[in-house]
C-alpha cells in the first residue's frame, strides 16, 4: 500500500494497484489539485475523522447510467404533485453540512470531516463541485453534492429529511445530466438506495475506460464541465 512521502507530493498509484477492498493509498491532503487528480483517476477520499486520509477505487464500481434511471409508479405520482422544488447550486455549503449531520439508519458518525467540508466548498467556488437542493416550501428537505468532470458526475453524498426527498433530487439530477449528454453518475458505494433507482455494478476497468473516453475541458459556457 502506497503512503504519500510528503504532503506536497501530487501523486497517485494506478487504481488497479488497490487492495481487495479498493484501498489505493494513504495520506496526502485535500488540496483542490490532489482531489481533482484523484477523480481523474477514478479515486475518491473516504476516512473517519482523526484517521489519515484514505483513497479508494473499489472493484466493482457502482454507477448509474442516466438513461437507465428507474422511476417507480409511486415516485412518478409524487413528481406530478410537485411536492418538492428542486434547484441547482443554490445552497452548496448547506447541502454538505446536512449530509454531514443527518443521521442515517445503521450509520454512526460521519466521514464528512470539517476539513472535507471546506475542501469541497473550495471546489464548488472553483466550479467543479455542485449541489442539488430539494425544497419543501422554503425548507431544505434533501440534497446531493458531487464533482462534475467531463461528462461524468461523481456523487459524493446525499441526505433526506423528508420521505423520498433525496430520491426526488437524484431523479432530477439524472434527467438534468441526460439532457446535457452526461454518460454516467458515479455512485461509488453499492447501496440499496442507488440500486433501487437503476444503479448497476461494473468492473473497475470499464469504469476507468469511461473516464478516459469522456474527459473534457471547460467549454465556452463553463457550466457543469471542465
Describe the structure.
The protein has 7 helices and 11 strands. A 7-stranded mixed β-sheet has the order 6-7-8-9-10-5-11, with helices on both faces. A 4-stranded mixed β-sheet has the order 1-2-4-3, covered by helices on one side. The chain folds into 2 domains: 2-59, Leucyl/phenylalanyl-tRNA-protein transferase, N-terminal domain (Alpha-Beta Plaits, 2-Layer Sandwich); 62-213, Aminopeptidase (3-Layer(aba) Sandwich), CATH 3.40.630.70. α3 runs antiparallel to α4 (114-125). The longest helix is centred in the C-terminal third of the chain and has 15 residues, at 165-179. It is an alpha+beta fold and 226 residues long. 31% of the residues lie in helices and 24% in strands. The protein is globular and about 50 Å long. Residues 216-226 have low confidence and may be disordered. The protein has helices at residues 32-40, 73-80, 92-101, 114-125, 165-179, 192-196, 204-213, and strands at residues 2-3, 23-26, 44-45, 54-56, 61-64, 85-88, 129-136, 139-149, 152-160, 184-188, 200-202.
In short:
With 226 residues, the chain is α+β, with helices and mostly antiparallel strands.
Oligomeric composition of the shown chains: single chain
The average pLDDT value, as a whole number, equals 88
Uncertain stretches of 5 or more adjacent residues:
216-226
CATH class of the largest domain: Alpha Beta
Radius of gyration: 17 Å
CATH homologous superfamily identity of the largest domain: Leucyl/phenylalanyl-tRNA-protein transferase, C-terminal domain
CATH architecture of the largest domain: 3-Layer(aba) Sandwich
Number of DSSP strands?
A: 11
- Summing up helix and strand content along with how strands pair, one would put the structural category as alpha+beta
Distance between the amino and carboxyl termini: 31 Å
> How would a crystallographer describe the biggest sheet?
7 strands, mixed
Shape: globular
Helix residue percentage: 25-40%
Output the helix-strand order: EEHEEEHEHHEEEHEHEH
